[in-house]
Design brief:
CATH superfamily of the domain at 62-151: Aldolase class I
Oligomer: single chain
Bound molecules: 2-phosphoglycolic acid
Structural class: alpha/beta
Mean pLDDT: 97
Order of helices and strands: EHEHEHEHHEHHEHEHEH
Radius of gyration: 17 Å
Strand content: 15-25%
Number of helices: 10
CATH class of the domain at 62-151: Alpha Beta
Strand order of the largest sheet: 1-2-3-4-5-6-7-8
Low-confidence stretches: none
Distance between the termini: 13 Å
Length: 244
Amino acid sequence: MRRKLIAGNWKMNGLLADGIALAAAVAELAKPRKHKCDILICPPFTLLIEAVRAVAGTPIAVGGQDCHMKASGAHTGDVSAPMLADLGCRYVILGHSERRADHKEPDSLIKTKAQAALAASLIPIVCVGETEAERDSGRTLEVVAGQLKGSLPEGGTAERVVIAYEPVWAIGTGRTPTLAEVQEVHAMIRRESGLGQGVRILYGGSMKPSNAQELLALPDVDGGLIGGASLKADDFWAIATACP
Ligand code: PGA
């Protein structure tokens, strides 16, 4: 039985006061209850330590949005996986389409970063997803399978790796694939990942309170990677509580 994971990707949002308030609000919502799913927030680097403090004593985990492939050294501006683990992070998002686009990150680099994450005892959330042109030309399954093959770490297991399927054209646009399309890609990812039945595969791209329930009910959707809707504690919480 795969336990669902609801992960908030705050992206480059939140000054100190706002970020602390958001983490505290999510922590407050999480406090009194037992949860049907695992809950994770991934604030920007500048807010991580405050987020770890804010959620202390709750079941909420904290993760980074990227890490370097090396543990330390002359890499100005970068943050390593052991640094994230040292702060109390348990996860790190890797290969998000915005990093693939903004920083030209290839699959091979994402794989090396994912291996660095594993070495630091972090769970990498490896992101894959097709562009609109790739979907329109009928290449979705082929593109996503290729990204998976190139980006998944060696030595990963179903317990220590999470995959996120995020169609690029669905991110921040309010558009989503049909439920059948999401299920088709997730089922393929599970088959092709080599990680077995137990690997958790999150859907990301315009997941919100109004569509979370139907997406999270799909047999191969094991949670969500939530961008915009994770910046409002109530919306994020509504998605977390939509887990079947
Ligand atoms: P969105 O972003 O929920 O705002 O579409 C998801 C993501 O990029 O992880």
